Amino acid sequence: MAKGRVLSGMRPTGRLHLGNLEGALRNWVNLQSEYECFFVSVNWHALTTGYEDTRELRALVRDNVMDWLSVGIDPQKSVVFVQSEVKQHAELYLLLGMLSGIGWLERCTTYKDWLDNGYEPNYGLLGYPVLMTADIVLYKADTVPVGRDQLQHLEMARELVRRFNRLYGEVLVEPQAKLTEFPHVPGIDGRKMSKSYRNEILIAEKPEVIQQKVRRFFTDPQKLRRGDPGRPEVCPVFALHNIYTRSETEEIAADCRSGALGCVECKDKLSQSLIEALAPARARRAQLERNPQEIEDILTDGNRRAREVAEQTMQEVREAMKL
Length: 323
Ligand code: TRP
What we know:
By secondary structure, the protein is mainly alpha-helical. The chain has two domains: 4-185 and 292-320, HUPs (Rossmann fold, 3-Layer(aba) Sandwich), CATH 3.40.50; 205-285, Tyrosyl-Transfer RNA Synthetase (Orthogonal Bundle), CATH 1.10.240. Helices cover 54% and strands 7% of the residues. It has helices at 18-31, 43-50, 57-70, 88-97, 102-106, 109-116, 123-126, 128-137, 151-168, 207-215, 236-244, 249-258, 263-290, 292-320, and strands at residues 4-10, 35-41, 79-82, 143-145, 176-178. The strands form two sheets. A three-stranded parallel sheet has the order 1-2-3. A two-stranded parallel ribbon has the order 4-5. α4 (88-97) packs parallel to α14 (292-320), α8 packs across α9 and α11 packs across α13. It is elongated and about 75 Å long. It binds tryptophan (TRP). Residues 7-11, 42, 45, 132, 135-136, 144, 146, 150, 153 line the site of tryptophan. The site of tryptophan has 14 residues, from β1 and α8.
């Protein structure tokens, strides 16, 4: 049986942290054995909210891709590429734009959220789901691993595909969202780990910095000193032990509850776990940083492979639309 095809993308808007690792990348890595995968750094999408200052954009794309490779995205298996290097995305975006009603686009909740957050309503923001549809359907991907926040975009992609196929014939493939459960990853302040809260631990964080950041982590506010009984279920440090100190979580929980384990010691243990868990990624990343040409070669090859598939689809699209 032919393998299914996956496409997923990430906006290069910041350095990647443990939330990105557990929420998306871990999943991408695992999908590589079962699917033919395309992973794209969507730098045009990053412009929708960040078009004014683009000084860091090119470096961020490289930085993100280094993180992907460091945690196990394998360019031998998967196509790793950059959106702006495959112009077919722009062409299909334009064509799909004709099928996208303004009212329909305005009902998109992420669009409304952006406006609520003070972004001016512009054409790029409004067209975000149309560009995302182009990203997916150019590769005839049937499976799109995304977070819950992207489900509406996926539903819009499906609607656009059905509309296109009804008008011009069965050319495009309707993609399915693939939601995977992932563990809760709190940041330093106990809220969801997120760049906008500035509470993150980076995938590429140096061991000393991991230690410093973990020391600042919030813990159960009722546990003031060693000996006080703690509540692991409300403690962000415990939530991370649950991911990174898997084999000892029961013991840690019991010792926290009894008071035998103090927070300082518990945090030192977490630092050790994190440093160990990230060691292979750190080593691989150091190797990539020593030879920046390697990333360039990987992207050049990925862009070329992506372009081939995308151009094939565009030929069918142009033919179907009589262009
Ligand atoms: N909108 C996605 C996000 O913010 C990024 C994205 C762009 C994407 N194009 C995609 C995700 C195609 C999956 C498939 O997370």
